[in-house]
Amino acid sequence: MVALGSHKTIAGGVTAALGFLASGVPAGLKKDGKLDLALIYSEEPASAAGAYTTNIVQAAPLELTRSRVAEGKAQAIIINAGNANACTGEKGLPDAREMARRAGELLNITEDYVLVASTGVIGVPLPVEKITSATPAATASLSKENHAAASQAIMTTDLVPKEYAVQLIIKDQIITIGGMAKGSGMIHPNMATMLSFITTDAAIDSETLQRALKQVVDLSFNMITVDGDTSTNDMVLVLANGLAGNEQIKADTEEYGLFCKGLLEVCTALAKMIARDGEGATKLIEVNVTGAPSQRDAAMAARSVTGSNLFKAAVFGRDANWGRILCALGYSGAKFDPTRPDIFIGDVQVARDGGAVEFDEDRAAALLAQDPVQIFVDLKSGDFSATAWGCDLTYDYVRINGSYRT
């Protein structure tokens, strides 16, 4: 365990917090008996909060889950991979409800307390009977130890499972926040083809939890990109069951700030894992922008650079083509004086005052070969800063997406 200021990282992912269990089982949606059905369960009803895709084409499970999260309480989340249950017509919503109904029945909780998420191919009817047939195995195998199986069961083109958890002290009480995520392609700010599920034993009401999630998502999941595509199923869900026994966290208090710090740690770690695991990627790109006239300008500038296909390809080729960075800044919508930016690749300055400087090409190429690749931009136009994450663009991205459905 590694100390991180007032909190520390721990093992356990989505079951690290008190009172949470998880499982992952095969339901036959993926080939070769791979895990493709995950279940998360809280031993007590929990405050619920969510953030969702901005795509106006939205999958049935997302519509169902959003309506239930709006009521403020949930106790379980059932997730399938291999089929998105998106653009499936009138059958989509009843199938999502059937997933929740079966899970609620087996868990002996109200169906309205079961949230649903799906990921995979769009436009193919969900074989819901496979899911309901596998749900007894998912409920029977719920445990603290099966967090790893759950994180594997939600993967699609991901190469690695993504888990993270922290413990922090709030008024001498230990609070745990943990989570898991999936995402590899169709990743872009304002949600992407990503799912993330966060659990905590903190006592916090749903309205305050929703406020905290919105703040944190804007600094983490909404600051990553892989390919510029935003999907139909994207969501981040948080459940807080209060089993830590702390005094309920109120907004705009020191305790709220500490909780948000822990939540941001978890969400940022998971977001960076998603960006690093981008389809075909070989390295993570981190873009740090300072000197912006507003927070919005800083964020737009940083996200624009990570989203530039030309720059992402240059990183893959280890080509210190800083003009592509300046170009991306210019079309980002951020306000700045184009005659002022300084640009660095790692510790090598490649541009000064928006123009060329002599630099060591070999040293810059070596830095572009590292993982992560760090880019620093000073717009010299204000006092605000932001960080965004992405990945390089490789030949394998085309190979993977040229045959995703077939």
TrEMBL record:
Family: Belongs to the ArgJ family.
A matching Pfam family: ArgJ
Name the record gives this protein: Arginine biosynthesis bifunctional protein ArgJ
Predominant place of localization: cytoplasm
Annotated pathway: Amino-acid biosynthesis; L-arginine biosynthesis; L-ornithine and N-acetyl-L-glutamate from L-glutamate and N(2)-acetyl-L-ornithine (cyclic): step 1/1; Amino-acid biosynthesis; L-arginine biosynthesis; N(2)-acetyl-L-ornithine from L-glutamate: step 1/4
Subcellular location: Cytoplasm
Catalytic activity: L-glutamate + acetyl-CoA = N-acetyl-L-glutamate + CoA + H(+); N(2)-acetyl-L-ornithine + L-glutamate = N-acetyl-L-glutamate + L-ornithine
GO molecular function: L-glutamate N-acetyltransferase activity; L-glutamate N-acetyltransferase activity, acting on acetyl-L-ornithine as donor
Active site: T193 (nucleophile)
Organism (species): Desulforamulus aquiferis
One GO CC annotation: cytoplasm
Keyword Transferase appears in the UniProt entry: yes
Assembly with partners or alone: Heterotetramer of two alpha and two beta chains.
InterPro entries: Arg_biosynth_ArgJ, ArgJ-like_dom_sf, ArgJ_beta_C
Site (Cleavage): A192, T193
Keyword terms, alphabetized: Acyltransferase, Amino-acid biosynthesis, Arginine biosynthesis, Autocatalytic cleavage, Cytoplasm, Multifunctional enzyme, Transferase
Gene3D superfamilies assigned: ArgJ beta chain, C-terminal domain, L-amino peptidase D-ALA esterase/amidase
GO biological process: L-arginine biosynthetic process; ornithine biosynthetic process
EC number(s) per entry: 2.3.1.35, 2.3.1.1
Domain of life of the source: Bacteria
